[in-house]
Design goal:
Blueprint: H1 2-14, E1 20-25, H2 30-46, E2 51-56, H3 61-66, E3 74-79, E4 82-88, H4 93-103
Parallel strand pairs: 1-2
Antiparallel strand pairs: 1-3, 3-4
Helix pairs in contact: 2-4
């Protein structure tokens, strides 16, 4: 039951007007751990104009497969149900902010 609710809220979130940055990660992944402070910095800079969600790719394999996540960390940017951008690897906060602002609908 709770899994359905999570799926529902995720699919509702990515259909919204606010851009949603999704970070697919794994607990054992060192580069994934590097993304945590970067994502905090990005949230501090962008505030309410961005939603950031972290998804454990190993605990949510269906989501990882659905969005063709082949490595972690993988970042996907959604808005109004569309994938606007996708990239694997560590990306710095300034670069992420520029990508989000250039891709937003």
């Amino acid at each position: 039951m709770s899994e359905e609710v999570k799926q529902q809220s995720f699919s509702e979130l990515i259909k919204g007007d606010t851009p949603v940055l999704v970070d697919f990660y794994a607990d054992w992944c060192a580069p994934c751990k590097m993304m945590n402070p970067i994502l905090k910095e990005l949230k501090n800079k962008m505030g309410e104009s961005i939603i950031i969600i972290k998804i454990d790719a190993e605990k949510n394999p269906a989501a990882a497969i659905k969005y063709q996540v082949r490595g972690v960390p993988s970042l996907l940017l959604f808005q109004q149900g569309h994938i606007l951008w996708q990239q694997s690897g560590v990306v710095q906060a300034n670069q992420l902010q520029q990508i989000i602002e250039s891709k937003r609908l």
